[in-house]
Every structure is written in structure tokens, then in C-alpha cells.
Design brief:
Elements: H1 2-26, H2 29-56
């Protein structure tokens, strides 16, 4: 279960980076900002899962 949540965090990070790059490429500030937000959500999910792992062991 934790592995799937970690994978979801990685996917959010990747999706965010792609959106941010696409927004930057076409000059769409809103898309770029959405990408940064998704990337940050993925970072937060990853950090949460890592913290849970630390406390499990």
C-alpha cells in the first residue's frame, strides 16, 4: 500500500514538471503555476511517506 502511495507521489511530481515545462514553453503562466502546484503536492506526498517509513522502523 505504501509503495502505491509513493508511486502516486512520483507521478504527481512528474506530471507537475511536465505541466510547468509546457506552460513555460507556450507562455501560459496559469499552466506553469498549476505544474508547480502539482509538483509541490507530489513532493509533500513523498515526504509524508518517507516520514511514515522512518517511524515504522
Amino acid at each position: 500500500m505504501a509503495g502505491s502511495k509513493k508511486a502516486k507521489g512520483k507521478a504527481e511530481q512528474a506530471k507537475g514538471k511536465l505541466k510547468e515545462a509546457a506552460g513555460r514553453a507556450v507562455g501560459n503562466e496559469r499552466l506553469e503555476a498549476e505544474g508547480r502546484m502539482e509538483g509541490a503536492a507530489g513532493d509533500a506526498r513523498q515526504a509524508k511517506e518517507k516520514a511514515k517509513d522512518v517511524f515504522k522502523h
